[in-house]
Amino acid sequence: MSERREPSQPASQQQTGRTAAYDSAFLRACRREPVPHTPVWFMRQAGRSLPEYRKLREGIPMLDSCMRPDLVTEITLQPVRRHNVDAAIFFSDIVVPLKAIGIDLDIKPGVGPVVAEPIRTRADLERLRPLDASDVPYVTEAIGMLTAELGATPLIGFAGAPFTLASYLVEGGPSRNHEHTKALMYGDPELWADLLDRLADITASFLKVQIAAGASAVQLFDSWVGALAPADYRRSVMPSSTKVFDAVAGLGVPRIHFGVGTGELLGLMGEAGADVVGVDWRIPMDEAARRVGPGKALQGNLDPAVLFAGREAVEAKTREVLTAARDLEGHVFNLGHGVLPTTDPEALTRLVEFVHEQTAR
Ligand code: 1CP
């Protein structure tokens, strides 16, 4: 199951190391090459907004579902079938690698990840041992099944960035102000650096497992890093995220870097080693491009709440995004954050069609 190349692939692809998805609009946009249309996918497309997802998950706890390759494969494919998006995102969660190395945590419905014993002291660090492929056999198996099913549609692997993972581990669960996390970061910089360094190794290993199994791009989610000022980001967080990006450089897959409320950090998030920088809805794409600078593609950035407005409003706001993104070197259309759970799935399907029509060349 862990063979990266399917035997059915033409020999020419095996020789060049190119997967069936290599020439997809999504991977071309990530590489800043010309595209037949602007590619579209949605963060959190696999999951809560789809009735077929909720039906499949009935009675199965979130983390259990992440460990079942049959379910992971089906849930990952559901939005691809329904919406005709240009990429699939692997169904899992950022805390799966932490669970896999033995951290006692659960994903509570309506809450999110909850950690039984938060990590706050040097002794606690010992619980963060390195991860290897044998800790997550269900990931390798699911990705093998998925790439066979997906053919030319790329699969995006992902992981949580060290800061965002640390925020759950140190707080013990979701947090608005990240006060324990920041207390550790400002109060004990050495312990903080060691914590983030361990998390960087775990994250890098988790991404490498996904790439070895066949993922054709990876996204590092630093969802909550927008809570930091640029100087603190540069000093206390960027080295660990750079370590992750460096570890997966040269593996032939684009690296995407995303966080919420990161307008002031976009330049640094690109510098950390991303090929594609994700942008939330708070700044226009042309301004984001100025902040990121040349040599990177951008991903974004329709406000997910716009999908609750009528069709005309969605189209008008989408046109605004596409106009602001017109001169980018590479543009992957996405929402500025994940699909909200009560979003009408039909609105997502129409949005994919609209972006494809508007950008056909
Ligand atoms: O019971 C349920 O159905 C749980 C809901 C759920 C789902 C469907 C959670 C709990 N995680 C997921 C899947 C998930 N998580 C995916 C699947 C692929 C996709 O379609 O995108 C991905 C990429 C994630 C990543 C994730 N988990 C992030 C980063 C992305 C983001 O939205 O910023 C974060 C921060 C998490 C933590 C998490 N897991 C679940 C929840 C509700 C949360 C957020 C909790 C909080 O507010 O802190």
Fill in the keyword field for this structure.
361 residues; binds coproporphyrinogen I; 9 strands; Uroporphyrinogen decarboxylase; single chain; seven-stranded parallel beta sheet; TIM Barrel; alpha/beta; 17 helices
Bound molecules: coproporphyrinogen I
Strand order within the widest beta sheet? 1-4-5-6-7-8-9
Q: How much of the polypeptide forms β-strand, as a percent range?
A: 5-15%
Q: Indicate the CATH architecture.
A: Alpha-Beta Barrel
The tally of beta strands, per DSSP, is 9
Oligomerization state of this entry? single chain
At CATH level 3, the topology is TIM Barrel
What's the overall geometry?
globular
Task: Chart the SSEs and their pairings.
Layout: H1 11-16, H2 25-30, H3 51-57, H4 62-66, H5 69-83, E1 88-89, H6 96-100, E2 105-108, E3 112-115, H7 122-125, H8 137-150, E4 155-160, H9 162-171, H10 179-187, H11 189-213, E5 217-221, H12 230-236, H13 238-247, E6 255-258, H14 266-271, E7 276-278, H15 285-292, E8 297-302, H16 311-324, E9 331-335, H17 345-359
Parallel strand pairs: 1-4, 4-5, 5-6, 6-7, 7-8, 8-9
Antiparallel strand pairs: 2-3
The protein binds coproporphyrinogen I.
Structural account:
- The protein is built from 17 helices and nine strands.
- It is of the alpha/beta class and 361 residues long.
- It has a single domain (11-359), classed as TIM Barrel, CATH 3.20.20.210.
- The strands form two sheets. The chain has a seven-stranded parallel sheet with strand order 1-4-5-6-7-8-9. It has a two-stranded antiparallel ribbon with strand order 2-3.
- Helix 15 links the parallel strand 7 (276-278) and strand 8 (297-302).
- Helix 11 packs parallel to helix 13 (238-247).
- The chain is globular, with a radius of gyration of 19 Å.
- Bound molecules: coproporphyrinogen I.
